Amino acid sequence: MKFLRNALLAFWAVGLPLTACAQAPALTTFPVGATTVTASALVTNLSTVWELVWGPDNFIWMTERGGRISRVDPATGQVLPLLTVSDVTETGESGLLGLAVTEPFPAAVPQAATYWVFVVYNYTDQGVLKEKLVRYTYTSSGGLGSPQVLLGNITATTTHSGSRLLVLPDHTLLMTTGDAQQTSEAQNPASLNGKILRLNFDGTIPANNPIAGNRLYTLGHRNPQGLVQLPDGRIYSSEHGPSNDDEINKIEVGRNYGWPNVEGNCNLPAELTFCSANNVREPLTTWTPTIAPAGLTYYDHPAIPGWRGSLLLAVLKNSKLTQLTLDATGNAITNRTDFLSGFGRLRAICVSPQGRVYIGTSNRDGRGSPAATDDRILVLENRAYVATATRPTASGFAFELFPNPARRQATVQLPGPTTRLTVRDLLGRTLLTFRPTGPVATLELATLRPGSYLVQADGPAGSLTRKLVVE
């Protein structure tokens, strides 16, 4: 397989609407800086969308709380149901929750297994509500099958269940759990509740977890419902507070996030003592009164420049999309800006490689006021955006690289046909050098191990390096 091939037709395609024949009617528009963002409906008449994930097949993977797992065609909005999980218990906030999709690992897995699909859901065991993590095998011919319970018997109740999933580049899985209204368990390392857990893809415990033989990655959480990793490896989570102090946290391995001894920042005498003694990581920002923060993603695409380098947060109670601007270090949120009112409760969010943002509403969850077409998947896009090969900077030279993180392929939009591309590891060692013949090229990533790399483009106008994360 060639590492680099020309993709001139792809260059034109990335700038076109996914539905090339027609665009969905605009429901509203709003400004993001100098950009006009249009919101439209991709899908209607859903029931409590809980998770949206942009899959490696370039489809949107979706869970609905009642138990249905589907793939959604982003070009047409067609919902392709895969499975309704038979033992899901939907009551209160419980039901089918988080989902993650990845290619099987290790490579010894039979190739018939196209993807592994991880889901978290609540179920009833002898009259008691519990929670479990299950891995399915997906094939294009057979759909979802071969369920394997990786972690079960997790204490649950009708509220405070978590549970987002996040696949890490080292082939491990993070899973958030709520405290299930048993607040003291959040500080108990032996309990699965009130934690972010880390597991191998087969459910075993990674050898380098903070506590040997323990799935704990972080502790002291109340009800974390958002989880995202940035291209440089930083991880962030959103978390529901009680009647005060909803939080956005920077997740650092082994850290304590305080609950129930600390609400929000360490600013009371007892909290200061506890924080000092227990390695507590304070939140980056908090909300009082609470807003019910849910799905969390990262935006770094030229289609909407005003959102680049920011976290985007789907909000339930306050029914908004909130932009959280990060500083250069990622250790502070410098600004909070709200968008997209009027669509009710927003729970799930993902971003496509074309820079479109997809948001799932949650108005049929028992706490909303559903419209006739709810629940919906909304699309936010800059309809005026056309990807171009040249994006001038102060030096007249730039290039774009997406998606990032990437798996098998990444697209490079180059400033000219004479550009040379060099791929190096973080030690500066040259792995590959190529001279593409067109303005758009495709990086074939199959030969690269998961990790971080540097892609350098050299041309007559100068040189520029972008970081690429391979999952």
From TrEMBL:
Span of the signal peptide: 1-22
Keywords linked to the UniProt accession: Signal
Domain Glucose/Sorbosone dehydrogenase: 47-367
Entries under InterPro entries matching the protein: 6-blade_b-propeller_TolB-like, Glc/Sorbosone_DH, Quinoprot_gluc/sorb_DH_b-prop, Secre_tail
The protein's name in its UniProt record: Glucose/Sorbosone dehydrogenase domain-containing protein
Species of provenance: Hymenobacter sedentarius
Source species taxonomy: Bacteria, Pseudomonadati, Bacteroidota, Cytophagia, Cytophagales
